[in-house]
């Protein structure tokens, strides 16, 4: 049976995934790596985009064909595995959401001069209001699209004003002078790690866009999400490259803010506040919605009161930030945890793609399987190294 063309939902799922990926960490990572790698960072972006596509296409396809959420697929592959993955996703999502709330507060501080804690509370109130709307799914879709387009337009403007060496960036994208594998892993983890991988796929499932007949629509939405996130990253890279190539120093405490200020003056600094707020507040929504989608299978009450549980998730994140502050050690561990989540979830989906009781007679593309296996091995090895180093640093 042919699926209806839910254009708004498809765009909403794409932007939910993209804006979930474009958070405060995304802005900082892109700026810092541009500062250290220069034009060669273009190669890192290209490699991460190709990996992101392979990961997202596999996961979204399996979710659509199986018509099950990721945790239910995992429990079918191995009883208890879905519960384990759900715990990882929720813990990682909560930890990162504390940083997202702080980022939203920082954005409002830049714009209006209010304390970060007050800004964080206001941002939380805005996101909670979205989930109080009767049709919260549609409200979330529209909000993600508006904020995503706003971020994109501002970053394109700043990239233009910074006058980057576009020719050099194009050359170094295919012929880099140096390659940083850890930078690739960091970007991959930041755009398809943890809850981000499942944000769009679960949104489409909740909207009823599923089954083999819906695969073309699902794939189009997945590619659109990666494309939006990639364009934002490329434009931010060019903006930072324009500043760095002029030899201008970036402030260590807030590198992305320096890029905006140096490229477009005080007006640019205010624009940074808008981008930081938009990036953080959409990441709060994506983190809360997707994390809760992983525990909906635990109890019928969670499914019936999903929006209330999402609101509770946001409130807990905000209270931790306002009362305790940004828990650095927790965020460090969450970063390492995010690195572990991707190989665990992706390997599970790869196994599920060949289990008849999960996908029926669906045949998974060989090239996606090959890309998936490579990503699993590399991410597992590197994230293991990072985790050991960070654990050692915390207790040394």
UniProtKB/TrEMBL annotation:
Membrane topology: Multi-pass membrane protein
Keyword vocabulary terms for this entry: Membrane, Transmembrane, Transmembrane helix
Compartments, as annotated in UniProt: Membrane
Lipoprotein among keywords: no
InterPro entries: NRAMP_fam
Highest taxon listed in the record's lineage: Bacteria
Cellular component, GO annotation: plasma membrane
GO BP annotations, alphabetical order: iron ion transmembrane transport
Pfam families: Nramp (PF01566)
GO molecular function: cadmium ion transmembrane transporter activity; manganese ion transmembrane transporter activity
Coiled coil: none
Predominant cellular place of this UniProt entry's protein: membrane
Positions of transmembrane segments: 37-64, 76-98, 110-131, 143-161, 181-201, 222-251, 271-295, 307-324, 330-354, 366-388
Protein's name in the database: Transmembrane transport protein
């Amino acid at each position: 049976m042919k699926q209806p063309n839910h254009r708004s939902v498809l765009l909403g799922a794409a932007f939910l995934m993209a804006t979930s990926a474009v958070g405060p960490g995304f802005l900082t990572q892109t700026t810092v790596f541009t500062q250290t790698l220069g034009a060669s960072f273009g190669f890192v972006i290209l490699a991460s985009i190709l990996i992101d596509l392979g990961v997202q296409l596999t996961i979204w396809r399996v979710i659509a064909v199986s018509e099950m959420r990721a945790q239910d697929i995992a429990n079918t592959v191995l009883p208890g595995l879905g519960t384990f993955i759900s715990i990882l996703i929720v813990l990682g999502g909560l930890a990162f959401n504390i940083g997202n709330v702080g980022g939203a507060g920082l954005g409002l501080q830049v714009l209006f001069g209010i304390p970060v804690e007050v800004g964080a509370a206001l941002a939380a109130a805005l996101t909670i209001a979205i989930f109080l709307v009767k049709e919260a799914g549609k409200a979330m879709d529209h909000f993600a699209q508006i904020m995503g387009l706003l971020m994109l337009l501002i970053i394109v403007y700043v990239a233009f004003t910074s006058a980057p060496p576009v020719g050099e960036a194009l050359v170094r994208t295919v012929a880099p002078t140096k390659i940083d594998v850890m930078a690739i892993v960091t970007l991959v983890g930041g755009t398809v790690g943890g809850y981000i991988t499942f944000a769009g796929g679960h949104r489409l499932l909740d909207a009823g866009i599923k089954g083999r007949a819906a695969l073309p629509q699902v794939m189009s939405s997945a590619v659109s999400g990666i494309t939006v996130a990639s364009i934002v990253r490329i434009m931010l890279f060019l903006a930072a490259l324009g500043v760095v190539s002029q030899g201008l120093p970036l402030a260590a405490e807030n590198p992305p803010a320096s890029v905006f200020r140096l490229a477009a003056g005080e007006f640019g600094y205010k624009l940074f506040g808008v981008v930081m707020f938009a990036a953080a507040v959409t990441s709060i929504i994506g983190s809360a919605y997707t994390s809760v989608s992983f525990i909906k299978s635990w109890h019928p009450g969670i499914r019936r009161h999903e929006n209330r549980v999402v609101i509770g998730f946001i409130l807990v994140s905000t209270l931790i930030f306002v009362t305790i502050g940004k828990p650095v050690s927790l965020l460090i561990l969450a970063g390492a945890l995010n690195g572990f989540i991707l190989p665990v979830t992706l390997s599970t989906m790869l196994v599920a793609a060949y289990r008849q009781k999960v996908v029926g007679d669906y045949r998974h593309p060989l090239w996606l399987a090959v890309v998936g296996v490579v990503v699993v091995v590399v991410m597992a090895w590197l994230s293991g190294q990072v985790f050991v180093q960070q654990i050692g640093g915390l207790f040394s």
